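Our consortium's second objective concerns turning raw sequence data into structural hypotheses that experimental partners can test. To show how far this objective has progressed, the report includes one record in full. It was chosen at random from the queue rather than selected for favorable results. The single chain below, 145 residues long, was entered without modification.
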Amino acid sequence: MTPRRLLPAAALLLGGTLLLGGCAAVEGLVHKQSTQTFEDADAFRADASVDADWVPHDATALTLRTSTIEDADDAALLLTSTMTLPEDCVETVRTSAPTWTLDDAPSAYEAKTVFVCGDWSVIPSDDGWFGWTPNSDEEKAASRS
């Protein structure tokens, strides 16, 4: 193959690889985020890249979005559940918001209060809960008082 034909062939191969790799490759490279889904709470606890002790035991249809930037700790989690949050989650005025948005998640900016569950802030969604981390210093301080 001549060098003149090699460049278009390489471009075609790269384009095909990106298409076959799907949105996940583009999402990670361009938007610096990764999205994982989990069937239920057990699958989440076994394979998720974050700890979220507040996730109810009956949780299903979990969607987790995290940063692909090394050492970044921001995440957003949407799940379906009929259970309440653990007792150690304390309701306080909302002063944080998630870095990432998720389809079907409620708007954090419309919430006046959040439940602070450790490093997570959590609000009700239509059929469960929507949480994000990190939360603000103000929320953490209010949850300790």
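The partners drew two points from this record. Residues 1-31 form one domain. The longest helix spans residues 3-21. Both points have been shared with the crystallography group to help prioritize constructs.
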